[in-house]
Amino acid sequence: MNDSQHTGLTIAGKTYSSRLLVGSGKYKDLEQTRLATEASGADIITVAIRRVNIGQDPNAPSLLDAVPPSRYTILPNTAGCYNAKDAVYTLQLARELLNGHTLVKLEVLGDEKTLFPNMPETLKAAETLVKEGFDVMVYCSDDPIQAKMLEEIGCCAVMPLASLIGSGMGILNPWNLSLIIEQAKVPVLVDAGVGTASDAAIAMELGCDGVLMNTAIAGAQDPIRMARAMKLAVEAGREAFLAGRIPRKFAASPSSPMAGRIA
Fold first, then answer.
1. Cα–Cα distance between 234 and 162 in angstroms, integer?
2. For residues 24 and 214, is the Cβ–Cβ distance under 8 A?
3. Fewer CB within a 10 Å sphere, N or C end of the chain?
């Protein structure tokens, strides 16, 4: 982790008060997007450049009207890209649309069924983008070796999946996440697979620096209420991590001490 335990989340030299990052897709309309984003307390909002209008079409409603860059840090991502070339081009376009903005989220997918990261193409795209001056936050597998390679390339944050995108299955391999967290010198954020508030809390209790989610909020029966729940879960998980949990042991331990009892 590259930030002090007791301060906000620092990415590419900028500190954010919230450790919850949220997506902007899958809501029923821009008004619901706005309300849920506000309820989440998030500072960083991901935007799928290939799917969402942020100015490409001046005659259509723009997402930036609901989540203005004056209030939020817009994090363009490469959702829908399946090779390094398309991902690099998409983020070059985003930089133009957002007036030189360099903080981006790279994701290169392997196939349409699993949406699992294509790591060879991800590594290739990351290397190109870092050389071009982008600050790259990168979606990756929960492989500690691959995560370290991305850090060594120069990515400013690694974002291993907890489980498949949109699956809501939660954290399937906490041990791999712990290995990535232990070795990382850049922020580690869980990306993909969170289903409910307890999943977000567990990620933070493991020592993750933050959590990114979209479907878990936008797909909930009440997205705005779920956004508030996720905000609280991330905060609670972080506090529990900093507090330090008691060790697990195969024996009972009375809450009240036995020594000095009256009778």
1. 15
2. yes
3. C
Strand pairing report for 14-16 and 9-11: antiparallel
150-185: pLDDT as tens digits: 999 999 999 999 988 888 889 999 999 999 999 999
Whether the Cβ atoms of residue 158 and residue 184 lie closer than 8 Å to each other: yes
Q: How far apart are CA 226 and CA 163, in angstroms?
A: 19
Q: Are 114 and 164 in contact (CB under 8 A)?
A: yes
Where would I find the H helices in the chain?
Answer: 30-40, 84-97, 119-131, 144-153, 174-183, 197-206, 215-218, 223-243
State how far the Cα of 83 lies from the Cα of 67, in Å rounded to an integer.
Answer: 29
Q: Mind telling me the catalytic residues?
A: 105
**Above pLDDT 90, what percent of the chain?**
71
